[in-house]
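can u pls check wat happens w/ V47
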Amino acid sequence: MESTSQRVNEPTRGPLPLRRERVRDASLHPVIDKLEAGERLSFEDGVVLFNSRDLQALGVLANRAREAKNGNAAYFNVNRHINHTNICITGCSFCAFAKKPGHEGGYRMTLDEIVSRAVPPEGARWEEIHIVGGLDPGFSFQDCLEMLRAIKAVNPTVHLKTLTLVEVDYYAKRERKSPAEILSALRDAGMGSLPGGGAEILGEELRKKICPNKISGARWLELARTAHQMGIRSNCTMLYGHVETLEDRVDHILRLRALQDETGGFMAFIPLQFNKEHTPYEHLPEVTGEDNLRTLAVSRLLFDNIDHIKVYWVMVGLKIAQAALWYGADDIDGTVVEERITHDAGAQTPTGLDLDTLLHLIRRAGRTPIERDSLYNARQVYE
Ligand code: V47
């Protein structure tokens, strides 16, 4: 471990202007002019960017925005996941993790099984535990609270990034309580922040097709607003690469951007690449590396009000994640450990990474690794 003295995460001074005449895709020229003038990009601009195949130009533009916000830093945290139950009544078409109650392959961890995962093995540490599960009729809200308290009892300093807004809504309805009451009880039991899952695609028409029984996009945004108003920070995500259009993606991003204008409560945006195995979409082509990089780059350019764009290596693979640090991403998530949702859908990536591998990836990309806490305070700069 090395010193924390230098200021790698400070915005770099005056990134070089992009010579628009060098950009072959002329449809990008007006968007470049807007970016040069510091203007916010519109829906139409987002569609132009997503339709461009000039990946290099998108990368240069996104990298300038990325470096202006986060300098040379590449953030990560030392975390693990716990998916306490995969039993779920929702039946989202894209999800290979969930099992309907009573169906083969369903599991629900006991409190002992959960707690045993919260204690790091000898020589290891978890700074954050990311806990999400299915909407499981056999796992009550009291079970949830007990789970958080029990984890805190064995690992008092760990940050619990826990329950998607979909689960918050589920427990509010089950308990006949307001979402604010549920969030407040979770916070009292040890929740530190909310992960960004469950956003999928927020536009209602497509949402009804891919996850008809899930809360609406409007409800997801309303719950995020409630959390932010209570001072609870959260992330936001977008599931892409299934049956959505590029317009759906832009619309989704702009809905999140509008809420962020209001609340400022989102810490990071995480585009989640759809993994298709064991879903009805197996016939679709694989999401390509080009699409991963383009989606990250366009997200960085549209989200002028979210500080961090996270590339989730679990879904896109380690090599694309490394390259993404030059295509708008400034955060590579973390050590992760025991990821299940993506692996049940066929992901070939490891189910966790050790710290050395993560540092190696970041350093070889020419970025400066910064271990962060869950709220993006720097814990350790690795020169
Ligand atoms: O909401 C489900 C997605 C999400 C599949 O907040 C799938 O830091 C790909 O939200 N292929 C859960 N994705 C994961 C998530 C997340 C991950 C990492 C970091 C953070 C954060 C949040 O996974 C679900 C859904 O959108 N998902 N099935 C699938 N087959």
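The chain has a mean pLDDT of 94.
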